[in-house]
Automatic annotation (TrEMBL):
It is a multi-pass membrane protein. It comes from the Bacteria. It holds the Pfam family Bac_export_2. Residues 7-26 have a biased composition (Basic and acidic residues). Keywords: Bacterial flagellum biogenesis, Bacterial flagellum protein export, Cell membrane, Cell projection, Cilium, Flagellum, Membrane, Protein transport, Transmembrane, Transmembrane helix, Transport. The lineage of its organism: Bacteria, Pseudomonadati, Pseudomonadota, Betaproteobacteria, Nitrosomonadales. The chain crosses the membrane at residues 36-55, 93-116, 137-165, 185-211. Gene3D superfamilies: 6.10.250.2080, secretion proteins EscU (3.40.1690.10). Belongs to the type III secretion exporter family. Required for formation of the rod structure in the basal body of the flagellar apparatus. Together with FliI and FliH, may constitute the export apparatus of flagellin. InterPro entries: FlhB, T3SS_substrate_exporter, T3SS_substrate_exporter_C. GO terms for cellular component: plasma membrane. Its main location: membrane. This is Flagellar biosynthetic protein FlhB. It comes from Nitrosovibrio tenuis.
Length: 383
């Protein structure tokens, strides 16, 4: 049961999967949105440029009708005249056609932005396979597309029929009306029909766009196993990462242990924590933590300290505060300056006392370790 659940596509597509599908040219597209955008642009373009186009085309027609009778039967002249008129008509229509071209180019980007993928234009003979083509036509997706096309045609046809039926008397009355009045009335009917059909296409696009987005993300859904495999590829195998982290910790511990011989003092709990401190006058602003550890690692730090004759001092509150509020290489917190200063002062006095005793000089009285170090209560987790 668990294996079946892992193989079901229940997980949303990951960013990597979405990016790959985009590289392959697989992005949501809505033909209905493009159709609506082109239709609106066509209507708006005629509204803005209609007067200018009508004037230019009318002038072309008048010029075309001015044909002398002497050249009316010369096929060569007629061909040249037709070519010249066609070029002039194309120039007149160029702004309108350019506007339509730009809209047809930009409309698909409204849903998924600019995209150019070589994979989309790479020849793929599977796309022209008749058997696969028939399978696509008679598939569930093909059936859904057929139903959508029929519903769209029925909706637009019904709106067109309703518009004609509602204005049939006005349309029939145009036969007996003067040309100027009938042309104006016909233009009004065309605008009404255009707005009705545009509204229908807007409704179709409003339904189609969410469906295309949902369908695109549905097709890209992943199984739990695919998600796990992708995580392994992007972030690495968890077992390998665990081994790497373990090796990194071991190397860091090795570097830390190599710093213990240079420490000035090791402050202990005495059994739970060990923190080694080092201070170089003129080179450091404040004492630094060169080693720290708890339990077994604390024991190893103390053993290394004894081996290299680094002073070990039992100061549980200070050891706990240093362990919990510093990291390797950190300076001691400012609130612990006084306590650490007393510890280092004791260590330096003890070092001088031992050196004098070993040389046979009078060393005086042995220094006494401070009993009550000034460790703020908020820094001591043991309280």
């Amino acid at each position: 049961m668990s294996e079946e659940s892992d193989m079901e596509r229940t997980e949303p597509a990951s960013p990597k999967r979405l990016e790959k599908s985009r590289e392959d040219g697989q992005v949501p597209r809505s033909p209905e949105l493009s159709t609506f955008a082109v239709l609106i642009t066509a209507g708006g373009g005629l509204w803005l440029l209609g007067g200018h186009l009508a004037a230019q085309l009318s002038e072309l027609m008048r010029e075309g009708m001015k044909l002398p009778r002497t050249v009316g039967f010369d096929s060569g002249v007629l061909g040249e005249r037709l070519l010249d008129q066609s070029l002039h008509a194309l120039v007149a229509l160029a702004p309108y056609l350019f506007l339509m071209f730009v809209t047809a180019l930009i409309a698909p980007m409204l849903l998924s932005g600019w995209l150019f993928s070589w994979k989309s234009v790479t020849p793929d003979f599977n796309r022209i396979n008749p058997l696969k083509g028939l399978a696509r036509i008679f598939s569930l997706h093909g059936l859904v597309e057929l139903i959508k096309a029929l519903l769209k045609a029925a909706l637009i046809g019904a709106i067109g029929a309703w518009t004609i039926w509602r204005h049939k008397e006005a349309a029939l009355s145009l036969i007996d009306a003067p040309f100027v009045a009938s042309a104006a009335h016909m233009a009004e009917l065309v605008i009404i029909s255009f707005l009705a059909i545009a509204g229908a296409l807007a409704l179709v696009a409003a339904v189609d766009v969410p469906f295309r987005l949902w369908d695109h993300h549905r097709k890209l859904k992943m199984t739990k196993e695919e998600v796990r495999q992708e995580n392994k590829e992007t972030e690495g195998d968890p077992h390998v990462k665990a081994r790497i982290r373990a090796q990194q910790r071991a190397m860091a511990r090795k570097r830390m242990m190599s710093e213990i011989p240079t420490a000035d003092v090791i402050v202990t709990n005495p059994t739970h924590y060990s923190v080694a401190l080092k201070y170089e006058d003129g080179k450091m602003r404040a004492p630094r933590v060169v080693a720290k550890g708890a339990h077994i690692l604390a024991l190893k730090i103390r053993e290394a300290g004894r081996e290299h004759q680094v002073p070990l001092l039992e100061a549980p509150p200070l050891a706990r505060a240093l362990y919990h509020h510093t990291e390797l290489g950190d300076e001691v917190p400012q609130k612990l300056y006084n306590a650490v200063a007393e510890v280092l002062a004791y260590v330096y006095q003890l070092r001088r006392y031992r050196k004098s005793s070993e040389s046979g000089e009078y060393a005086g009285k042995a220094p006494q370790f401070p009993d009550d170090l000034p460790v703020p209560a908020e820094l001591d987790p043991g309280l």
